[in-house]
Amino acid sequence: MQALARLADIELEEMRFVRVHAGLQHGSSTFEECTMKIGELATATSTPVETIRYYEREGLVPAPARTSGNFRDYEAGHLERLQFIRYCRGLDMSLDE
Asked: pLDDT digit string (tens) for 24-69?
C-alpha cells in the first residue's frame, strides 16, 4: 500500500511539473494564464495528436475553444484531464473504466 501511495505522489508531482513547465514555455508564470495548440498539448503529455482527437470524439476530453483560424485552443483543464487519462491507461484501465 505504501508503494502505491508513493507512486500516486510521484505522479501528482510530475503533473504539477508539466503544468508549470508548459506555462513557462509560453512566457507566463503558470499554465492557467496561457493556452496551447494540439501539438503542444501532445508534446506536454506524450500523447499522439490523433489520440487526443480520438479522446475528443469519444467525449473523454471536452472539445476546446477554436481560434479565428479554427485551431484548437487547449487550456489547463484539458492538460490535467489528458494527464489523468494517460495515468489511468498506464494502469491498464480501459477507456470505459
From this structure: 444 444 445 578 899 999 998 999 999 999 999 999 999 999 989 9
Render pLDDT for 56-67 as a digit per residue (tens, 0 to 9).
999 999 999 998
Residue 36 Rama label (left phi>0; alpha psi -120 to 50; beta): beta
Classify residue 59 as left (phi > 0), alpha (psi -120 to 50) or beta: left
| Residue closest to 87 by CA, chosen among 14, 5, 2 | 14
The model carries a pTM of 0.65
| CA–centroid distance for 92 within its chain | 18
Cell of 23: 506555462
Could you tell me the three cell numbers for 20?
A: 508549470
